Amino acid sequence: MIDIGSYNTLRVLRLVDFGAYLGNLESGQDVLIPKRYCPEGLTEGDDIEVFIYTDSEDRIIATTETPLAIVGECAFLDVIDINDFGAFLDWGLPKDLFVPFSHQPYPFQVGQKAFVYLKYDDVSQRVIATGKVRNQLKNDVSDIEVGNPFKGIIYEQHELGWRMVVDNKYHAMIFDSDFTELPEKGDILNVFVKAIRNDGKLDVTLFPLHEAVQDDLELFIIKYLKESDGVMPYDSKSSAETVQGEFGVSRKVFKKALGALYKKKYVDFADGNTRLL
Questions:
Q1: Which family does it belong to (predicted)?
Q2: What is the pLDDT of residues 188-222, one digit of tens each?
Q3: Class of domain 74-134 as given by CATH
């Protein structure tokens, strides 16, 4: 299947005077790449990576140009026009990106940068943008662990810091204390999960978990064992949810601390338990 609004690797099926038709064996579909976008020396049978979208006449078309964002991504884009139906954003392609009025959290104005999420609209069968970004984000963070690295974009200032979208999927907060020089809206940062809230939002930090965290955790585990008659029903195979709930860290960090204690001959393992030596 050819995915509109995304990059596709397609095969050149045939060359024509005005370009080439591309497709894949799975879908049986084909799509035109205009001649001006055809790489020099393109021949039948070649595989080529292209971006697929609909042109001004709503025809599906391929291009080798790079858009500023694709379906499933968030971005700040310039508002360049308004009509009776909505706003139009510059996303780096000849056809501007449409934002219906119903998808604007406030009336967009020409000249501003709008924070939007790109999605494929089944009704119009084209890519649109929505400024109601939070409606597109996930609340299920069950697969995320403290310490996980992500890339995120800052979109709004908060009294305690800055709101972000990380991995184009999750709502996050990064605090002012992380910065020596305050960021700006649109900044893209590499961050690490510091805490996971009950409401599905994340607290993130610029800094990976420090080795001191492991040292403190090793001491905590020893204290925990001493207070539990030298045995606890947790080991390196315990679930991430159990480890997070009991020790407040990711399973990866917990396993690393247990491994260090084992090498130091402080603990041993048997039947899913950890025993203090």
A1: Belongs to the CvfB family.
A2: 999 988 888 888 889 998 876 654 455 677 888 88
A3: mainly beta
The helix, strand and coil proportions of the chain, stated in percent and rounded to the nearest 5, come to 20, 40, 45
Residues in the chain: 277
Residue-by-residue DSSP string for 57-116 = T--EEEESS--S--TT-EEEEEEEEE-SSEEEEE-SSSSPEEEEGGG-SS---TTSEEEE
Per-domain residue ranges of the chain: 7-63, 74-134, 149-205, 211-276
Q: Which fold has domain 211-276?
A: Arc Repressor Mutant, subunit A (1.10.10)
242-269 burial, b at 16+ Cβ within 10 Å, e below that, comes to ebbeebebbbbbbbbbbebbbeeebbee
- Report the distance separating Cα 63 and Cα 238, nearest Å: 48
pLDDT digits (tens, 9 = 90+) for 218-244: 888 888 899 889 999 999 889 888 887
pLDDT classification of 29: cutoffs 50, 70, 90: confident
